[in-house]
Design goal:
single chain, 212 residues, alpha/beta, Rossmann fold, 5-stranded parallel beta sheet, 6 helices, 9 strands, 42% helix, FMN-dep_NADH:Q_OxRdtase_AzoR1
């Protein structure tokens, strides 16, 4: 059984990126009804941004933490446990002011923990969150893929790779604010790409045949 962790970050439940995640999970369930689906809706239930309490708590021995530090570390530990338990990570990412939602950045900051999800060595940093497949569902009002305005793709590849997740596929739905025809075309193309990627994973995972 595969565990899928879906992260929703649209401000609205009906936001474009959330709808892409819903479509992805619907198609996934149709092919893998036995799989376990975990959900984090950061738009509906945002997690706090890092602050001094959380940071000092990370580097304070457990027995010396204040109640506030313990609470902050427990939240980070919970988010990391969800990520570590997942075989597949699905990120729904709208573009807000040319960047990722601040709620997603907060999630990243909570799961990027030295000594737990990455470590520094004499040969450089090593990601410890490995053997996962990541799908990034990127929804944009304009068309930015392949341009300098697309700050999301490089950042997410870098930070996910830093944590050890290098098998990352991006699915773009762009031009969603450029009229109904453009929106329909973009969504249809994205749904088709989702279907092909899921079908491809159904046949092979990390180069190894799987039961289907």
């Amino acid at each position: 059984m595969t565990t899928v962790l879906q992260i929703k970050t649209s401000l609205s439940d009906t936001g474009n990126a959330n709808r892409l995640v819903d479509a992805f999970i619907t198609q996934w369930r149709a092919r893998h009804p036995e799989d376990r689906i975990l959900t984090r809706n950061l738009g509906r239930n945002p997690i706090p941004h890092l602050n001094e309490t959380a940071i000092t708590g990370f580097f304070t021995p457990a027995e010396r933490r204040t109640p506030e530090q313990r609470a902050a570390v427990e939240l980070s530990d919970e988010l990391i446990a969800e990520l570590q338990a997942a075989d597949v990570l699905v990120l729904g990412v709208p573009m807000y002011n040319f960047g990722i939602p601040s709620t997603l950045k907060a999630w990243i900051d909570h799961v990027a923990r030295a000594g737990i999800t990455f470590k520094y060595t004499e040969n450089g940093p090593v990601g410890l969150v490995q053997d996962k497949q990541v799908f990034v569902l990127a929804a944009r009002g304009g068309i930015y893929s392949g341009t300098p305005q697309d700050t999301q793709t490089a950042y997410l590849r870098n930070v996910l790779g830093f944590l050890g997740m290098t098998d990352v596929s991006f699915i773009y739905a762009e031009g969603l604010a450029l009229g109904e025809l453009a929106k329909d075309r973009a969504e249809t193309a994205a749904l088709g790409q989702i279907s092909r990627l899921i079908d491809s994973r159904t046949i092979t995972t990390a180069g190894k045949p799987v039961d289907v």
